[in-house]
Amino acid sequence: MLSRLQDFLSRHRRKFIVTGVLVGGAYCAARYAQRKLVEIHEKQAREMFERTRRTHHFESTEKTCNQVILGLGEEMCDAVLRECSTDELLEQLRQNPKNKVELWEEMKVVAFTRLATFVYASSMLVIALRVQLNLLGGYIYRDITTEQTRITDELKQQYLSLIRHFITEDGIRDLVRYIRTQVIAVVKSSMPLSRQLSLNDLEQLFWSLQMAINADTRRDPNSKMTKYLLPSQSSSFSPLLQQMYNETLDLLESEDAISVCTHNVTRGFVLACDVIAESLGETLHHLPTAEVQKQAETQQSQQFNQSSSSTSLPSSQAVDNNNLLNINTVLMAMAKLIPIISGITSGGYDSSARSTNLPTQLLSFYLVAEKSKTLGANVYETFSSA
């Protein structure tokens, strides 16, 4: 019996060996696959947890960023109003002086300077804070994931206080001085107080002013934001603060940041025209009937000249029907536009302000601008995963 068993095992030894190898290999493969599957599930769970945590941290950073922008935006508006004050000019004009024309010319320069400064300064502040807060948020997130404490409260305060140069030191002042020189070159001589302007003329004027401001490659607020926004580097900077400062400079001088600022400024001047149009509409609403009739007759005459087949309506009907008075073709002397332009920029940031408050409209618009938010998100993604 034993000899038969030995003979059987001897004759089928290869089969047993192959079968054992196959069964053992299958078992090992199954265990390996099971272990790998568990590892994959654990990795996916960790990645999902990581994405969720990063998303929550980014959303918290964005919320903080919006709050900081509005808080510092209010201070920035006050700084612009101090640098471009019209109080003294208005007080002199109330006394009906002999140099009234010269005072109105200065009012014109200050009004356009203040409007252009708000357009540029608001965009620059929003972009700078989006970059700073998201860069800082990325560093803090890396500290959380690596269980380090490189970003201390003192370092946070030092880094975020860099933007104070723009608001409380020389930044706004230098920006106002530069924009004023371009306003004088574009507006003062070519736009006399008696010149009649339409909204289209005003849009062309803003476009010319924007091109003049952007033309100086040494002081262009779009490409040289850091010249106005940040102070010069200091020997008191710690190595990490110096690194963050240099990274902030690189980001603000990048093509992405310049492109966003240029886009914002262009949209800002368009928004300024919309606010002026609304304010102009309110002004026309309170004009004497004779003045509205004159405007309506002028528009009808223009329409008749453009199309001889058009039938003009009586001016009285134009007065009765406000829709017939096209705001885009209304002509108004520069001297009458100056109070409107000055009025829409005379108030600081106020969340409850009317739509004719340009500083509030600009900050609110830039705050939710998709390009600015995308820039901040890209900065956070880069520095949170570095």
From TrEMBL:
One Pfam entry name: Peroxin-3
GO CC, any one term: endoplasmic reticulum
GO molecular function, one term: protein-macromolecule adaptor activity
Subunit annotation: Interacts with PEX19.
Coiled-coil intervals, chain numbering: none
GO biological processes: fatty acid elongation; positive regulation of ceramide biosynthetic process; protein import into peroxisome membrane
Biased composition range(s): Low complexity: 299-316
InterPro entries xrefs: Peroxin-3
Function: Involved in peroxisome biosynthesis and integrity. Assembles membrane vesicles before the matrix proteins are translocated. As a docking factor for PEX19, is necessary for the import of peroxisomal membrane proteins in the peroxisomes.
Location of region: Disordered: 294-316
Keywords (A to Z) from UniProt: Peroxisome biogenesis
Protein name: Peroxisomal biogenesis factor 3
